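Module 6 notes. Inverse folding takes a fixed backbone as the condition and produces residue identities as the prediction. Think of it as a translation problem where the source language is geometry and the target language is the twenty amino acids. Below is one complete input and output pair. Work through it position by position during the lab.
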């Protein structure tokens, strides 16, 4: 798994040009961190479909400067933004329910996929929130099942932030490591 993540980060680092031009230009401005915060709020709420979430932190580090201090700041912004976005989706799931979310045009998770992540949450409980937030391709996928299960708000925010911190720290660390090696 570490090898797969490493390969993905190398690929991502080499694909900075694949960031949408507008996003790349905005990240490179004086408002880059504010833009990054907004991007991660959208990513956390599962509304960011134009760029893979695994690309954003390495891309931001490449554009803002790949120092350890910048990495800490970028990771902190990513954690706050993604947690805010996930909490918004979590709260929405609590309020509107499963069927209404599935009927929403913006919610691009199929009934089968949602059922699979509901089963994960039922089987492993709240611990699955930080675990799935740390793994590629499952980030945020148990946000809705956690909301539907009436998980406590504070517990969700803490576990969501912990998983996002883990994931983004790994990406930033690998970016910094590759930046010094290459």
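Target side of the pair, the amino acids:
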């Amino acid at each position: 798994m570490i090898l797969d993540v490493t390969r993905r980060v190398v690929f991502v680092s080499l694909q900075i040009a694949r960031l949408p031009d507008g996003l790349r230009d905005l990240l490179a401005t004086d408002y880059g961190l504010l833009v990054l915060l907004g991007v991660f709020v959208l990513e956390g709420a599962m509304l960011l479909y134009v760029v893979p979430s695994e690309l954003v932190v390495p891309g931001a580090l490449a554009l803002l400067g790949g120092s350890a201090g910048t990495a800490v700041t970028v990771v902190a912004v990513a954690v706050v933004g993604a947690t805010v976005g996930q909490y918004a989706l979590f709260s929405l799931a609590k309020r509107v329910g499963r069927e209404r979310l599935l009927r929403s045009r913006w919610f691009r998770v199929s009934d089968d996929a949602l059922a699979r992540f509901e089963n994960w949450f039922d089987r492993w409980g709240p611990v699955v929130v930080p675990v799935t937030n740390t793994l590629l391709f499952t980030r945020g996928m148990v946000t809705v099942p956690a909301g539907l299960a009436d998980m406590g708000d504070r517990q969700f925010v803490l576990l969501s932030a912990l998983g996002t911190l883990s994931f983004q720290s790994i990406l930033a660390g690998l970016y910094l490591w590759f930046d010094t090696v290459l």
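Reference fact for the lab report: The CA atoms of residues 38 and 81 lie 7 Å apart.
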